[in-house]
Design brief:
- The chain has 484 residues and is mainly beta.
- Among the domains are: 213 residues, no CATH class; 41 residues, no CATH class; 49 residues, no CATH class.
- The protein is 10% helix and 28% strand.
- It has three helices and 30 strands.
- The chain is elongated and about 135 Å long.
Protein backbone atom coordinates (compact mmCIF):
# COMPACT_ATOMS: atom_id res chain seq x y z
CA UNK A 1 0.00 0.00 0.00
CA UNK A 2 1.54 3.34 -1.00
CA UNK A 3 1.82 6.23 1.49
CA UNK A 4 -0.95 8.32 -0.14
CA UNK A 5 -3.52 5.55 0.10
CA UNK A 6 -2.40 4.88 3.68
CA UNK A 7 -2.75 8.55 4.62
CA UNK A 8 -6.15 8.77 3.08
CA UNK A 9 -7.22 5.69 4.94
CA UNK A 10 -5.90 7.17 8.18
CA UNK A 11 -7.88 10.33 7.59
CA UNK A 12 -10.97 8.37 6.67
CA UNK A 13 -10.63 6.17 9.74
CA UNK A 14 -10.32 9.21 11.99
CA UNK A 15 -13.36 10.86 10.46
CA UNK A 16 -15.32 7.66 10.64
CA UNK A 17 -14.47 7.21 14.28
CA UNK A 18 -15.61 10.74 14.97
CA UNK A 19 -18.80 10.10 13.11
CA UNK A 20 -19.55 6.93 15.04
CA UNK A 21 -18.92 8.69 18.35
CA UNK A 22 -17.55 7.08 21.46
CA UNK A 23 -14.56 5.63 19.62
CA UNK A 24 -12.54 8.88 19.85
CA UNK A 25 -10.25 8.97 22.86
CA UNK A 26 -10.12 12.11 25.03
CA UNK A 27 -6.79 13.69 26.02
CA UNK A 28 -5.53 13.45 29.54
CA UNK A 29 -2.49 15.55 28.61
CA UNK A 30 -2.57 19.10 27.24
CA UNK A 31 -1.66 20.62 23.86
CA UNK A 32 -0.91 24.34 23.73
CA UNK A 33 0.57 26.68 21.13
CA UNK A 34 2.88 29.72 21.11
CA UNK A 35 3.48 32.14 18.26
CA UNK A 36 1.70 32.54 14.92
CA UNK A 37 0.59 28.92 14.72
CA UNK A 38 -2.43 26.82 15.58
CA UNK A 39 -2.23 23.62 17.61
CA UNK A 40 -3.74 20.51 16.04
CA UNK A 41 -5.06 17.69 18.20
CA UNK A 42 -6.51 15.35 15.59
CA UNK A 43 -5.27 13.70 12.44
CA UNK A 44 -8.38 14.78 10.57
CA UNK A 45 -7.32 18.41 10.86
CA UNK A 46 -4.56 17.82 8.33
CA UNK A 47 -5.52 18.96 4.85
CA UNK A 48 -3.71 17.94 1.70
CA UNK A 49 -1.38 15.35 3.25
CA UNK A 50 1.65 14.82 1.03
CA UNK A 51 3.86 12.52 3.07
CA UNK A 52 4.20 10.21 6.08
CA UNK A 53 6.93 8.46 8.07
CA UNK A 54 5.93 5.30 9.94
CA UNK A 55 9.46 4.12 10.95
CA UNK A 56 8.49 0.53 10.29
CA UNK A 57 11.36 -0.08 7.85
CA UNK A 58 13.56 -1.57 10.56
CA UNK A 59 13.76 -2.02 14.31
CA UNK A 60 17.41 -1.09 14.89
CA UNK A 61 20.06 1.38 13.69
CA UNK A 62 19.74 4.92 12.51
CA UNK A 63 16.97 6.20 10.31
CA UNK A 64 18.54 7.21 6.97
CA UNK A 65 18.47 11.00 6.72
CA UNK A 66 17.12 10.96 3.16
CA UNK A 67 14.71 8.05 3.59
CA UNK A 68 11.66 10.29 3.23
CA UNK A 69 13.18 12.83 0.85
CA UNK A 70 11.09 11.48 -2.09
CA UNK A 71 8.03 12.54 -0.10
CA UNK A 72 9.45 16.01 0.48
CA UNK A 73 10.91 15.65 4.04
CA UNK A 74 14.64 15.27 4.87
CA UNK A 75 16.31 14.76 8.27
CA UNK A 76 19.43 16.75 9.24
CA UNK A 77 22.25 16.59 11.78
CA UNK A 78 24.59 19.25 13.17
CA UNK A 79 24.00 22.87 14.27
CA UNK A 80 20.53 24.17 13.59
CA UNK A 81 22.09 27.34 12.22
CA UNK A 82 23.58 25.23 9.41
CA UNK A 83 20.35 23.45 8.56
CA UNK A 84 18.50 26.55 7.33
CA UNK A 85 19.90 29.99 6.54
CA UNK A 86 18.64 32.65 8.92
CA UNK A 87 18.04 30.35 11.88
CA UNK A 88 19.55 31.70 15.11
CA UNK A 89 18.44 28.98 17.50
CA UNK A 90 21.39 27.21 19.07
CA UNK A 91 21.82 23.47 19.45
CA UNK A 92 22.58 20.40 17.36
CA UNK A 93 20.36 17.91 15.58
CA UNK A 94 21.03 14.17 15.79
CA UNK A 95 20.09 11.27 13.56
CA UNK A 96 16.93 9.51 14.76
CA UNK A 97 17.20 5.83 15.64
CA UNK A 98 14.77 2.98 15.10
CA UNK A 99 13.33 1.49 18.26
CA UNK A 100 11.22 -1.71 18.52
CA UNK A 101 7.57 -1.80 19.46
CA UNK A 102 7.00 -0.26 22.91
CA UNK A 103 3.34 -0.23 23.96
CA UNK A 104 4.38 1.09 27.37
CA UNK A 105 5.47 4.40 25.78
CA UNK A 106 2.40 4.65 23.55
CA UNK A 107 -0.40 3.35 25.77
CA UNK A 108 -3.60 2.59 23.87
CA UNK A 109 -5.93 4.00 22.98
CA UNK A 110 -3.92 6.88 21.50
CA UNK A 111 -5.86 10.16 21.43
CA UNK A 112 -6.52 12.22 18.29
CA UNK A 113 -6.06 9.37 15.82
CA UNK A 114 -2.37 8.89 16.50
CA UNK A 115 -0.85 5.55 15.40
CA UNK A 116 1.87 3.32 16.84
CA UNK A 117 2.26 -0.11 15.20
CA UNK A 118 5.78 -1.48 15.32
CA UNK A 119 9.07 0.45 15.32
CA UNK A 120 9.19 4.13 16.27
CA UNK A 121 11.65 7.01 16.13
CA UNK A 122 14.01 7.69 19.03
CA UNK A 123 15.96 10.98 19.50
CA UNK A 124 13.33 13.15 17.80
CA UNK A 125 14.57 14.90 14.67
CA UNK A 126 15.08 18.12 12.69
CA UNK A 127 13.64 18.22 9.14
CA UNK A 128 13.20 20.50 6.13
CA UNK A 129 10.63 20.30 3.31
CA UNK A 130 10.93 20.66 -0.42
CA UNK A 131 7.22 21.55 -0.76
CA UNK A 132 5.13 24.40 0.67
CA UNK A 133 4.07 22.33 3.69
CA UNK A 134 2.07 24.32 6.25
CA UNK A 135 1.00 21.50 8.57
CA UNK A 136 2.92 18.76 10.37
CA UNK A 137 1.84 16.31 13.07
CA UNK A 138 3.02 13.15 14.83
CA UNK A 139 2.15 10.61 17.49
CA UNK A 140 3.74 11.75 20.76
CA UNK A 141 4.80 9.32 23.51
CA UNK A 142 4.02 9.55 27.21
CA UNK A 143 7.57 10.14 28.44
CA UNK A 144 7.76 13.82 29.39
CA UNK A 145 7.02 17.26 27.96
CA UNK A 146 7.83 17.57 24.24
CA UNK A 147 7.89 20.47 21.79
CA UNK A 148 7.07 20.64 18.07
CA UNK A 149 8.64 23.83 16.67
CA UNK A 150 8.56 25.37 13.17
CA UNK A 151 10.45 28.10 11.28
CA UNK A 152 9.55 29.86 8.06
CA UNK A 153 11.67 29.58 4.93
CA UNK A 154 13.72 32.65 5.96
CA UNK A 155 14.77 31.00 9.21
CA UNK A 156 12.44 32.95 11.51
CA UNK A 157 10.76 30.90 14.22
CA UNK A 158 7.00 30.90 13.55
CA UNK A 159 5.73 29.14 16.63
CA UNK A 160 5.65 26.04 18.78
CA UNK A 161 3.21 23.45 20.14
CA UNK A 162 3.79 21.97 23.58
CA UNK A 163 2.69 18.45 24.51
CA UNK A 164 2.36 17.89 28.27
CA UNK A 165 1.38 14.23 28.74
CA UNK A 166 -0.51 12.83 31.70
CA UNK A 167 0.66 9.23 31.35
CA UNK A 168 -0.93 9.06 27.90
CA UNK A 169 -0.09 9.28 24.21
CA UNK A 170 -1.75 11.46 21.55
CA UNK A 171 -1.54 12.96 18.09
CA UNK A 172 -0.19 16.53 18.20
CA UNK A 173 0.25 18.87 15.25
CA UNK A 174 0.98 22.41 14.21
CA UNK A 175 -0.58 24.60 11.53
CA UNK A 176 1.30 27.69 10.30
CA UNK A 177 -1.87 29.17 8.83
CA UNK A 178 -0.61 29.16 5.29
CA UNK A 179 3.08 30.00 5.86
CA UNK A 180 5.38 27.40 4.24
CA UNK A 181 7.53 25.60 6.81
CA UNK A 182 11.25 26.02 6.26
CA UNK A 183 12.36 23.79 9.17
CA UNK A 184 10.65 21.76 11.91
CA UNK A 185 12.02 20.08 15.04
CA UNK A 186 10.70 17.72 17.69
CA UNK A 187 12.44 17.49 21.05
CA UNK A 188 12.40 18.08 24.77
CA UNK A 189 13.82 21.64 24.81
CA UNK A 190 11.62 24.73 24.95
CA UNK A 191 13.12 26.55 21.97
CA UNK A 192 10.44 29.23 22.05
CA UNK A 193 11.91 30.57 25.31
CA UNK A 194 15.49 30.48 24.01
CA UNK A 195 16.72 27.02 24.98
CA UNK A 196 19.21 25.22 22.75
CA UNK A 197 18.12 22.09 20.93
CA UNK A 198 19.54 18.84 22.30
CA UNK A 199 18.63 15.19 22.68
CA UNK A 200 19.31 15.10 26.41
CA UNK A 201 16.72 15.22 29.16
CA UNK A 202 13.53 13.27 28.67
CA UNK A 203 13.87 10.73 25.89
CA UNK A 204 12.33 11.92 22.61
CA UNK A 205 9.98 9.26 21.27
CA UNK A 206 7.49 9.67 18.42
CA UNK A 207 5.81 7.71 15.66
CA UNK A 208 3.89 8.21 12.40
CA UNK A 209 4.85 11.68 11.22
CA UNK A 210 2.48 13.34 8.71
CA UNK A 211 2.93 16.56 6.72
CA UNK A 212 0.36 18.40 4.62
CA UNK A 213 -0.12 21.47 2.43
CA UNK A 214 -2.96 22.76 4.63
CA UNK A 215 -5.91 24.86 3.56
CA UNK A 216 -4.93 27.62 1.09
CA UNK A 217 -5.76 31.12 2.27
CA UNK A 218 -8.38 33.10 0.40
CA UNK A 219 -7.54 36.61 1.62
CA UNK A 220 -5.32 38.44 4.11
CA UNK A 221 -7.75 37.87 6.95
CA UNK A 222 -7.06 34.15 6.68
CA UNK A 223 -3.44 34.78 7.67
CA UNK A 224 -2.25 35.05 11.28
CA UNK A 225 0.50 37.41 12.33
CA UNK A 226 3.76 35.61 13.08
CA UNK A 227 4.68 37.84 16.00
CA UNK A 228 7.95 38.82 14.31
CA UNK A 229 8.61 42.56 14.78
CA UNK A 230 10.76 42.56 11.65
CA UNK A 231 8.04 41.34 9.25
CA UNK A 232 5.12 43.19 7.82
CA UNK A 233 1.53 42.12 8.46
CA UNK A 234 0.89 38.86 6.56
CA UNK A 235 -0.72 38.86 3.16
CA UNK A 236 -2.35 36.05 1.21
CA UNK A 237 -0.49 35.44 -2.06
CA UNK A 238 -1.57 32.57 -4.35
CA UNK A 239 -3.17 30.74 -1.44
CA UNK A 240 -0.09 31.08 0.81
CA UNK A 241 0.29 33.48 3.76
CA UNK A 242 3.42 35.56 3.22
CA UNK A 243 5.27 37.45 5.98
CA UNK A 244 7.46 39.88 4.05
CA UNK A 245 10.42 41.60 5.75
CA UNK A 246 9.60 45.01 7.18
CA UNK A 247 12.56 47.41 6.83
CA UNK A 248 10.80 49.77 9.23
CA UNK A 249 10.26 47.11 11.85
CA UNK A 250 11.27 47.76 15.43
CA UNK A 251 13.80 45.28 16.70
CA UNK A 252 13.65 44.87 20.50
CA UNK A 253 16.71 45.89 22.47
CA UNK A 254 18.88 42.94 23.39
CA UNK A 255 20.00 44.70 26.56
CA UNK A 256 23.56 45.12 25.30
CA UNK A 257 24.73 48.74 25.02
CA UNK A 258 27.46 47.79 22.55
CA UNK A 259 25.14 46.53 19.79
CA UNK A 260 22.63 47.99 17.37
CA UNK A 261 19.11 46.58 17.34
CA UNK A 262 17.96 46.48 13.72
CA UNK A 263 15.71 44.52 11.43
CA UNK A 264 17.51 42.88 8.55
CA UNK A 265 15.85 40.64 5.95
CA UNK A 266 12.94 39.98 8.24
CA UNK A 267 15.13 39.07 11.20
CA UNK A 268 16.03 41.01 14.34
CA UNK A 269 19.81 41.26 14.41
CA UNK A 270 22.27 42.93 16.76
CA UNK A 271 25.47 43.98 14.96
CA UNK A 272 28.34 45.50 16.98
CA UNK A 273 28.22 49.18 17.90
CA UNK A 274 31.76 50.22 18.82
CA UNK A 275 30.55 53.74 19.54
CA UNK A 276 28.07 52.54 22.12
CA UNK A 277 28.15 53.73 25.70
CA UNK A 278 29.74 51.02 27.81
CA UNK A 279 28.68 51.12 31.49
CA UNK A 280 31.39 52.26 33.90
CA UNK A 281 32.88 49.41 35.91
CA UNK A 282 33.80 51.83 38.71
CA UNK A 283 37.55 51.40 38.24
CA UNK A 284 39.46 54.61 37.36
CA UNK A 285 42.32 52.51 36.04
CA UNK A 286 40.28 50.93 33.25
CA UNK A 287 38.61 52.38 30.18
CA UNK A 288 35.03 51.45 29.41
CA UNK A 289 34.76 50.78 25.68
CA UNK A 290 32.68 48.73 23.29
CA UNK A 291 34.55 46.12 21.28
CA UNK A 292 33.11 43.48 18.94
CA UNK A 293 29.62 44.03 20.31
CA UNK A 294 30.57 43.63 23.96
CA UNK A 295 31.53 45.98 26.76
CA UNK A 296 35.22 45.69 27.65
CA UNK A 297 37.40 47.31 30.29
CA UNK A 298 41.06 47.50 29.18
CA UNK A 299 43.64 48.88 31.63
CA UNK A 300 44.96 52.43 31.32
CA UNK A 301 47.96 54.39 32.66
CA UNK A 302 46.07 57.49 33.77
CA UNK A 303 47.14 59.60 36.78
CA UNK A 304 45.18 58.71 39.89
CA UNK A 305 45.10 59.06 43.66
CA UNK A 306 45.56 55.90 45.69
CA UNK A 307 44.45 57.65 48.89
CA UNK A 308 47.81 56.98 50.54
CA UNK A 309 49.68 60.09 51.78
CA UNK A 310 52.87 58.02 51.87
CA UNK A 311 53.07 57.72 48.08
CA UNK A 312 53.72 60.24 45.33
CA UNK A 313 53.28 60.41 41.55
CA UNK A 314 50.31 58.03 41.70
CA UNK A 315 49.44 56.40 38.39
CA UNK A 316 47.42 53.44 37.10
CA UNK A 317 49.20 50.19 36.29
CA UNK A 318 47.69 46.78 35.54
CA UNK A 319 44.26 48.03 36.51
CA UNK A 320 45.28 49.34 39.94
CA UNK A 321 46.29 52.75 41.31
CA UNK A 322 49.63 53.10 43.11
CA UNK A 323 52.59 55.41 43.61
CA UNK A 324 56.22 55.60 44.68
CA UNK A 325 56.89 55.50 48.42
CA UNK A 326 58.05 58.90 49.67
CA UNK A 327 61.26 59.32 51.74
CA UNK A 328 60.51 60.98 55.08
CA UNK A 329 64.09 60.97 56.44
CA UNK A 330 65.38 64.45 57.45
CA UNK A 331 69.02 63.41 58.14
CA UNK A 332 68.76 64.55 61.76
CA UNK A 333 70.38 62.23 64.27
CA UNK A 334 67.90 63.30 66.92
CA UNK A 335 64.70 62.52 64.98
CA UNK A 336 62.82 59.41 63.98
CA UNK A 337 60.95 59.60 60.65
CA UNK A 338 57.81 57.60 59.83
CA UNK A 339 54.83 57.93 57.50
CA UNK A 340 51.10 57.91 58.23
CA UNK A 341 48.84 56.94 55.31
CA UNK A 342 46.42 59.69 56.27
CA UNK A 343 48.74 62.63 57.04
CA UNK A 344 52.05 61.74 55.39
CA UNK A 345 55.50 62.15 56.98
CA UNK A 346 55.71 62.26 60.77
CA UNK A 347 58.98 63.46 62.42
CA UNK A 348 59.37 62.57 66.12
CA UNK A 349 62.16 64.11 68.26
CA UNK A 350 64.11 61.61 70.33
CA UNK A 351 63.86 62.67 74.00
CA UNK A 352 67.25 63.60 75.54
CA UNK A 353 68.97 63.98 72.16
CA UNK A 354 70.58 67.26 71.04
CA UNK A 355 72.55 68.83 68.26
CA UNK A 356 72.58 72.32 69.81
CA UNK A 357 72.45 73.75 73.35
CA UNK A 358 68.92 75.06 72.86
CA UNK A 359 67.64 71.51 72.52
CA UNK A 360 68.37 70.87 76.22
CA UNK A 361 66.37 71.85 79.29
CA UNK A 362 67.50 74.36 81.90
CA UNK A 363 70.23 72.88 84.03
CA UNK A 364 71.45 70.68 81.18
CA UNK A 365 74.17 70.99 78.59
CA UNK A 366 74.51 69.27 75.20
CA UNK A 367 77.29 66.71 75.13
CA UNK A 368 78.10 66.94 71.45
CA UNK A 369 80.17 63.78 71.26
CA UNK A 370 77.16 61.65 72.10
CA UNK A 371 74.45 64.18 71.18
CA UNK A 372 72.92 63.78 74.62
CA UNK A 373 71.59 66.32 77.08
CA UNK A 374 73.30 65.84 80.44
CA UNK A 375 73.07 67.64 83.78
CA UNK A 376 75.29 70.74 83.88
CA UNK A 377 78.28 69.82 86.10
CA UNK A 378 78.97 73.55 86.81
CA UNK A 379 75.61 75.22 87.18
CA UNK A 380 75.44 79.04 87.56
CA UNK A 381 76.22 80.54 91.06
CA UNK A 382 78.67 77.86 92.21
CA UNK A 383 81.99 79.68 91.71
CA UNK A 384 82.69 78.36 88.29
CA UNK A 385 83.18 81.64 86.56
CA UNK A 386 79.61 82.50 85.84
CA UNK A 387 78.54 86.14 86.36
CA UNK A 388 77.84 87.17 89.94
CA UNK A 389 79.62 84.38 91.69
CA UNK A 390 82.72 86.24 92.94
CA UNK A 391 85.15 83.92 91.27
CA UNK A 392 87.59 86.52 90.02
CA UNK A 393 87.26 85.40 86.40
CA UNK A 394 86.80 88.82 84.89
CA UNK A 395 83.05 88.79 84.81
CA UNK A 396 81.26 91.84 86.28
CA UNK A 397 80.75 91.74 90.03
CA UNK A 398 83.29 89.05 90.75
CA UNK A 399 86.58 90.84 91.62
CA UNK A 400 87.73 91.55 88.10
CA UNK A 401 88.95 95.10 88.61
CA UNK A 402 85.65 96.78 88.10
CA UNK A 403 84.56 99.34 90.70
CA UNK A 404 83.20 97.98 93.94
CA UNK A 405 83.83 94.31 93.49
CA UNK A 406 87.07 93.51 95.42
CA UNK A 407 89.07 92.61 92.41
CA UNK A 408 92.64 92.86 93.45
CA UNK A 409 93.18 96.53 94.25
CA UNK A 410 93.97 95.99 97.88
CA UNK A 411 90.62 97.10 99.25
CA UNK A 412 88.26 94.83 97.47
CA UNK A 413 86.20 97.62 95.99
CA UNK A 414 87.86 98.55 92.73
CA UNK A 415 87.92 102.20 93.76
CA UNK A 416 91.01 104.26 92.62
CA UNK A 417 93.12 105.89 95.34
CA UNK A 418 92.35 102.98 97.60
CA UNK A 419 95.28 100.78 96.79
CA UNK A 420 94.23 99.16 93.53
CA UNK A 421 97.64 98.24 92.29
CA UNK A 422 98.88 101.57 90.83
CA UNK A 423 101.28 102.78 93.64
CA UNK A 424 98.92 105.62 94.59
CA UNK A 425 97.13 103.97 97.46
CA UNK A 426 97.77 104.82 101.09
CA UNK A 427 98.66 101.30 102.05
CA UNK A 428 101.64 100.70 100.50
CA UNK A 429 105.28 100.67 99.55
CA UNK A 430 104.77 100.93 95.83
CA UNK A 431 106.73 103.05 93.42
CA UNK A 432 106.23 104.63 90.07
CA UNK A 433 107.60 101.77 88.01
CA UNK A 434 105.19 99.11 89.14
CA UNK A 435 107.22 97.61 91.98
CA UNK A 436 106.13 97.03 95.50
CA UNK A 437 108.35 96.48 98.52
CA UNK A 438 108.00 93.64 100.87
CA UNK A 439 110.00 94.21 103.95
CA UNK A 440 112.34 96.46 102.04
CA UNK A 441 112.82 93.93 99.16
CA UNK A 442 111.69 95.16 95.78
CA UNK A 443 108.94 92.88 94.39
CA UNK A 444 107.91 92.84 90.78
CA UNK A 445 104.15 93.06 90.57
CA UNK A 446 104.33 90.72 87.55
CA UNK A 447 105.53 87.90 89.71
CA UNK A 448 109.18 88.03 90.92
CA UNK A 449 111.76 89.59 93.23
CA UNK A 450 113.74 92.36 91.65
CA UNK A 451 117.53 91.86 91.73
CA UNK A 452 119.78 94.85 91.31
CA UNK A 453 122.20 93.92 88.60
CA UNK A 454 123.88 97.27 88.29
CA UNK A 455 125.55 98.26 85.06
CA UNK A 456 127.42 95.03 84.44
CA UNK A 457 124.37 93.05 83.21
CA UNK A 458 124.68 91.36 79.88
CA UNK A 459 123.03 92.55 76.74
CA UNK A 460 120.53 89.73 77.00
CA UNK A 461 119.79 90.65 80.58
CA UNK A 462 119.55 94.32 79.68
CA UNK A 463 117.20 93.52 76.93
CA UNK A 464 115.02 91.57 79.28
CA UNK A 465 115.10 94.29 81.91
CA UNK A 466 114.33 96.90 79.32
CA UNK A 467 111.32 94.91 78.21
CA UNK A 468 109.97 94.68 81.70
CA UNK A 469 110.73 98.33 82.27
CA UNK A 470 108.85 99.39 79.19
CA UNK A 471 105.90 97.27 80.19
CA UNK A 472 105.93 98.87 83.66
CA UNK A 473 106.01 102.36 82.25
CA UNK A 474 103.09 101.53 80.02
CA UNK A 475 101.13 100.23 82.98
CA UNK A 476 102.01 103.32 85.01
CA UNK A 477 100.75 105.58 82.26
CA UNK A 478 97.49 103.69 82.01
CA UNK A 479 97.04 103.93 85.78
CA UNK A 480 97.65 107.64 85.86
CA UNK A 481 95.21 108.24 83.07
CA UNK A 482 92.55 106.43 85.06
CA UNK A 483 93.29 108.53 88.10
CA UNK A 484 93.18 111.73 86.15
Amino acid sequence: MNYQRRVYLLSFAACFATYLGGAETAWAGTITSQGAVTALDNVNQLQGIVGSATYNEANAGGVPLNLYTPQGMTFHTGPLTNVLAGVTTLGNASQPNYQPNSPANFPAPIAGGGIHEASFAYFGGVVTFSQPVTQIGLTAARNGTQYLTVWDQNGAMLGQVTWQPANDSAFIGIDTNGVPIGMASYGNDNLWTGAAYDIGGSTIMSDTWLWALGIPCQNNSDCQDDGNPCTAPPTCQAGVCVHAPDPDGFCPDDGESCTFDVCQDGQCVHPPNNQGECPDDGNLCTNDVCSAGACTHPNNNDPCDDGNACTANDACSNGSCGGMTIDCADDNICTTASCDMLVGCVIDWTPGCCTAQEHCEDGEICLFGSNACITDPNPPGDGDGDPGDGDGDGDPGDGDGDPGDGDGDGDGDGDPSTGDGNSESDDGGDDEVGFETDGGVPFDTFGGVVVDQGCSCSTEERDTGALFGAFGLLLLGFTRRRRG
